[in-house]
Amino acid sequence: MIKYTLAFILAATLVACGNNNSGFSADESTELSTEPVKVTTPLNTADTITIIASGANMSEMKFNLKSLKVPAGKTLTVALENQSTDATMPHNIVFIQEGKANDVGQAGLHNKENGYVSPDDKNVIAHSPLVQIGETAYFTFTTPAAGNYEFICSYPGHWGMMKGAFVTE
Length: 169
Ligand SMILES: [Cu+2]
Description:
alpha+beta; four-stranded mixed β-sheet; globular; binds copper (II) ion
């Protein structure tokens, strides 16, 4: 866990210095960062990207990425780390078809037992379980065909703010 987080930070630093050859990329949602940030090593079967959810309330909640670009048709493991310290802030991450955030979120409302994701939702590509504060969940999926997708947190009320672009190429 720590290892991957450090790799992320290191890679982001390398990119800031002009390294531009990695397999996937991400934008950090800090206000200072306007350039896409390239992340870690080339994407292989065992590659993991750590995504952090944080914020103590509904106006602060966020993912640390605004966008994530990965190769199409590759095995990707995502670690979702919930760094919030407020128990009312569980989060998930749901990779979805473009433009379907509200549909997926609304369908998820009726599926609390499945982590607020409808199990037969065709707009959902892959998703984490619901992650409680201070916890990290891992899940692995095959990235979809080249195209533009999105990611959201489908916990009730969160998907309007907790969202980003997911691009495969
Ligand atoms: Cu959330």
